[in-house]
Structures
1.
Amino acid sequence: MAEAPAASLRLECDGDALAANWRALDRLSGVAAAGAAVKANGYGIGARRASAILHEAGCRDFFVAHSSEAAELVDLLPPAAIAVLHGPMNLADAHFISAIGVRPVINSLHQAALWHEAGGGRCDVMVDTGINRLGLPPVQIGDPALARLDIDICHSHLSSADEDVPRNAAQLALWAKACGQLSPRRRSLANSAGIALGSAYHGDLTRPGLSLYGGVQRAELAPHIRQVVCPAAAIMQVRTIEPGDAVGYNATFTAPRRMRIGVISIGYADGYLTAWSNKGVFRFGTAALPVIGRVSMDMTILDLTDAPDLAEGDWVQAEYDLREASERSGLGQYELLTLMGRRLAR
Ligand SMILES: *Cc1c(COP(=O)(O)O)cnc(C)c1O
């Protein structure tokens, strides 16, 4: 069978920046070690690729949401380095988690019972200290089912680490109390933003995700975090339009002058959403190429004025500094990362 030709769009990923971001977050975690959240396919950049780079950089604790995500990493990482945040969904899942040698995060008394029934073994525990998402309510911590668990890490998760609000200290106090009751080997509370809240929040292990991949939710982290991902697409067609000519669906852009424009192979089905219509910018070297008109399903149209030599087949890169991109598009940094779909060859 003939081989498919190279794709006309890709998600460029700077592995050195990813490793550097982990090292920076590990340093900022002080005496605590930094782990890594690699759930949701490594926030869209590829869980296997990210995990290999992070392990090489020195990361020894990895967090996924589902047991199926853990199973995709067990040939790459020591299974004992992987924890499943959602915990066992049912008895079969508990047996599966046990069989592949990873740790479940126990989020409820029901999950504790499932884990015991599947044979037990080392696990983590998540205590809900106010986000009211997953985790054991503090009032259940005295339950005998928990006393029988072999607990590696006692986790909690901050709801508002990107804000300076009293809720952070309240969650910290509840987590510290829960750790005192459960006597785990290790304690973990902070996500990326939580690392910037200071050493009291670090415990023994931090769990950054977003900032590994270039996201910055607190100003303190900005000087330490490098951009990791960058969508890139090839120019498929170039044309010259006259003053008054309209561009794209619903003619939302009208040429003010004679313009050279290019159609590139990326659109909202690839994760480059319509929020970028008439707002996004692509780059070719230092040349800035604004998005004109509405982003289509698989295509976007650029003003090539700043790079007059660009031709069909040339590649351009989206401006995708997550903080700036979030402000400009109104989309969250987490979504900007995870949106970049499967069609982007890595
Ligand atoms: C996703 C997740 C993290 C990582 O959070 P970021 O804000 O991406 O750094 C940490 N802990 C838990 C429990 C998570 O679900």
2.
Amino acid sequence: MQNSPPESIPLSKPNIGAKEREYVMRVLDSSRLALGPMLDQFEAQMAAFCGVKHAVAVNSGNSALHLIVRSLGIGAGDEVITTPFSFVASSNCLLFENAHPHFVDIDADTLCLDMNLVEEAISPATKGILGVDVFGSPAPWPQLQQLATQHSLHLIDDACEAPGARIGDTPIGAWGDAAAFGFYPNKQMTTGEGGCITTDNEEIAELCRSMRNQGRAVRERMEHVRLGYNYRMDELAAALGCAQLERLPGLLAARARVAEAYNEALAPYAADIILPANPSTLPDIQGEQPIPITRSWFVYVIRLNEAYTDDARDLALKLLRAKGIGCASYFPSIHLQPYYRERFGYKPGDFPVCESISNRSLALPFYPALLPGQIFTIGDILGEILPQLPKKVKTF
Ligand SMILES: *Cc1c(COP(=O)(O)O)cnc(C)c1O
């Protein structure tokens, strides 16, 4: 048995209220537990929220990504340009279809794909670009869209970390051919397990709808016209989703306030740690007006600066956990995951910007109900820990 420290603050915590209970109870009382009216309602709400024609709800973000890849016909021998700085699902969805994730390194400021490297990476085998809205910060979709159009490429948004984010007036969920959302309990909104595809493309929507439901052409018929899966979202999850989506603006505002409080509490350590960037516009394209963006806060990730040794971050995680502070490394580089190393032979040094940021980053507790007092306590604990972390020896 592990000793539980006196005050323990989790890394994340779902925010479930009266509305969630009411909607879930309504489903339980109705006896209709799958493929019912809540699913239809949740999809209608998601489509409206993202400003798109179609939303197809599924049982995870992973399923949403997989169905998008399949519905676009991306398969064996195809390459898709994507980022190694993400959650593993954004690359795995390509491997499911025997397509190849062509990683390019990231931009150290935006943490998204380095746009200078994306264009260079395009080859005749390239079928698409899969961008990720890392930590809820929108990827440069207008630029990615321009490249995709120029080279006739599919464009997929892994929007799992960014519900409610916007570029100009256009919500995340409306960029690219289709976008994937995930509703795991650590996300800004949750359905327990769950996910959703949003798109304006009717063909993609119909294919995804059929493939999530065992390849049926029509919802209730026992006729299976294509290879399908059971990736359905059940009525209880959809009920949670309806309630969470209705409350999302308030939940996002609360998350933004928590981020503000962290910025204040951690300001005294600015010499040692890098706080999350929160740009109000996309990186400037020369000669064009900067485009305003709205971030959706998913996690609060800080970074030890270059003065610390390569193993300082892991020690920081250990010391924080010993004090009862939930924390995690966000993200470990995908290409250095054991499965990817073994299968593709990747090694440290392949994507140096991604690796350097990945090795120095850590996520702190982050959820709407986190109180200012707790945030300042975390700041104080971090202040005690930082001097214990090893720094590189200066050589002149
Ligand atoms: C959460 C997440 C997913 C999907 O996760 P599931 O657990 O399958 O719902 C995919 N990509 C990113 C970047 C994520 O953060």
